[in-house]
């Protein structure tokens, strides 16, 4: 018997799995090609992901998905994305010069920014001092937003409240 190469994409099915697949085809389910990932989100926000799933569609429009479901670790994926952004931060897009303004306009912009910063505190700074109601928010979510956006707890809680506890949108709003 010949060996299967380690990097090949071969699936070996048990006898019971072969029977189940034959029954699925007899039910009229059609295989859907080209699906690389399927995710499911539960009510409590937990996300399950199936990489390289086998997807079938019924005549009624329902889908049947086979594959190994894993809990999707969003924080790990977010950290990887931020790491890649930081690595590419110093790289300018092709065709863009490092200096897009003349020196006088840059100095004028810097002076205007310095003047506005010393004149009055921003509205966001007032949020830092005030206590924000954290009821209905998950403490882990607040900590994650604080860590990823680099903001104080009050700002993180306020952003989560404004975005209905959506971590991604809260981080994007604070980072932008």
Walk me through this protein's architecture:
This protein is of the alpha+beta class. Among the domains are: 15-71, Ubiquitin Ligase Nedd4, Chain: W (Single Sheet); 119-176. Helices cover 45% and strands 14% of the residues. The chain has 7 helices and 6 strands, in the order H-E-E-E-E-E-E-H-H-H-H-H-H. It has helices spanning 15-26, 74-87, 103-119, 123-129, 139-149, 153-162, 167-175, and strands at residues 30-32, 37-41, 47-51, 54-57, 63-66, 69-71. The strands form 2 sheets. The protein has a 3-stranded antiparallel β-sheet with strand order 1-4-5, with no helix packed on it. Helix 4 (123-129) crosses helix 6, helix 5 crosses helix 6 (153-162) and helix 5 (139-149) runs parallel beside helix 7 (167-175). The chain is elongated and about 75 Å long. Residues 94-99 and 125-129 have low confidence and may be disordered. Residues 137-176 form the UBA domain. Residues 85-127 are annotated as: Disordered. Part of the nascent polypeptide-associated complex (NAC), consisting of EGD2 and EGD1. NAC associates with ribosomes via EGD1. Pfam families: NAC, UBA_HYPK. This is Nascent polypeptide-associated complex subunit alpha.
- Rough outline: elongated
> Based on DSSP secondary structure assignment, what is the total number of beta strands?
6
What is the mean predicted local confidence, pLDDT? 77
Q: Provide a count of the helices.
A: 7
Widest sheet: strand ordering? 1-4-5
């Amino acid at each position: 018997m010949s060996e299967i190469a380690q990097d090949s994409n071969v699936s070996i099915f048990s006898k019971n799995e072969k029977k189940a697949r034959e029954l699925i085809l007899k039910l009229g389910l059609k295989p859907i090609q080209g699906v690389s990932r399927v995710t499911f989100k539960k009510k409590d926000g937990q996300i399950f992901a199936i990489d390289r799933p086998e997807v079938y569609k019924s005549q009624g429009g329902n889908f049947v998905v086979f594959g190994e479901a894993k809990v999707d670790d969003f924080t790990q994926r977010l950290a990887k994305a931020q790491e890649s952004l930081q690595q590419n931060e110093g790289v300018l897009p092709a065709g863009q010069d490092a200096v897009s303004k003349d020196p006088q306009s840059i100095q004028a912009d810097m002076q205007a920014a310095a003047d506005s910063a010393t004149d009055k505190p921003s509205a966001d700074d007032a949020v830092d001092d005030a206590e924000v109601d954290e009821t209905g928010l998950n403490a882990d979510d607040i900590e994650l937003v604080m860590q990823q956006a680099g903001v104080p707890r009050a700002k993180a809680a306020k952003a989560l409240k404004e975005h209905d506890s959506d971590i991604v949108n809260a981080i994007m709003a604070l980072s932008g």
